[in-house]
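Predict structure. Chain length: 512.
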Amino acid sequence: MSRVLGFARDILIAAYIGAGPVAEAFLVAFSLPNMFRRFFAEGAFNTAFVPLFSKKLEAGEDAHDFARDAFSGLAAILVVLTVLAIVFMPALVLAMAAGFAGDVRFALAVDFGRIAFAYILFISLAALLSGVLNASGRFAAAAAAPLLLNVVLIVALVAAERGAFPNVAVDVGTVEGAEGLLVRHGTLLTWGVLVAGILQVGLVWIAAARAGFRLVPRLPRLTPDMKRLAIIAGPAMLAGGVVQINLLVGRQVGSFFEGAIAWLSFADRLYQLPLGVVGIAVGVVLLPDLARRLRAGDATGGRDALSRAGEISMALTIPAAVALVVIPVPIVSVLFERGAFGADDTAATALALAVYGAGLPAFVLQKVLQPLYFAREDTRTPFRYALVAMVVNAVAAVGFAWLLGFIGAALGTTLAAWTMVWLLLRGRRGMGEEATFDDRFRRRIGRIVLASLLMGAGLWIGVLVWGPLLGLPGWRYVALAILIFGAILVYGLLGQLLGAFRLGEFRRALKR
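Prediction complete.
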């Protein structure tokens, strides 16, 4: 539901704001708190926190007190970070998008960034509370929290388009060349980010309190458990920083090509649908599960959990990747091409989407493989691998940009993802039985690939047949729906016939 509403949000951004200066400025401003959130909360803090918290729960130790200390310590760090970021926002914007310098986009991004950055405080605390809920076997509230962000931003966009809050806008005189109406749209959208953060942390705090973890902040304490948390989180934080540098390289490359940041962002949102629904969801469940099994010495159960997670992830991800490579133009055109988003924007976004699609299985596999390390409290090895992937990304993105323009950023991201997967697979040696995929997984993965490729051929034929309808207003929605649901049906039948999966297994996995 969150990803579907995210599409609705992005459709409205494309239609009302387009891919021009205001859209690019908002996307950079919004990426700032999200970048630091992944660095501090999801990328580092939760990577270290969830296994420790899960093991305390398994052992019947005082998990509540540990969680409260972690909550208080994270809040203190984030308050300081937010104040510093607001003061040094111009430098942060240049670090994110040097191509904005001396441009209308720079002033807009600074103004938007100062409003949106406080979002990191609320969403990072929400991430920690979500870790508490996930580790205790409760997943619904944490998964539902992003719904609030999308609902609030959709309301803000519709309100702006209908003329609500006419006095809300940055000083348009300081951003000569930007249309005042679009600036107001962007400003309301940015304030919506902040409001959504408050609602998100409120939702998961209430859910955690009902689960028996009423975390009230107090003065931070450097207890032995917090020292242990900091030691484990340190390398994870560095690894998170490497991942964000990869994203920074992509944005820096894109900032030198007008419209590219918006094109890359819209393409990113599309491949994030299967990544979020499948990869991140599986990883969130797998990490505390593996940590508990390791604590209990259940190697066979750990291997089965890893293999089934890999199996269902690839069965759902590989066909999605094939579809994104085969029909990117119809997907982007139907979803985004209207209002301020034109045919040239569609072509550029579709090209980026096809490149990201080729890397989608790697992005998901990372989410399956990394818990093997994190469940063992090993954050240093993924950090070393992330460094290698960072070098691959930087060299590929900048190198290909000279030849291919903005698409070099997407190519760098995809190549770095596959490099990371290869390193994670190679690094499992010596971990034991629970770190290997079983015979069933190895037998089925080739069949999943074959079924996906045959489905892709069917999609290509479908585009030839339904192509004219994809360009007709009104009918294009029907034509794309027929293509996609037809592909799902074909893949389901082929998967059953080839023995790639059994549909009943999906139902049982989803229930778990």
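Summary: The chain is about 80% helix and 0% strand.
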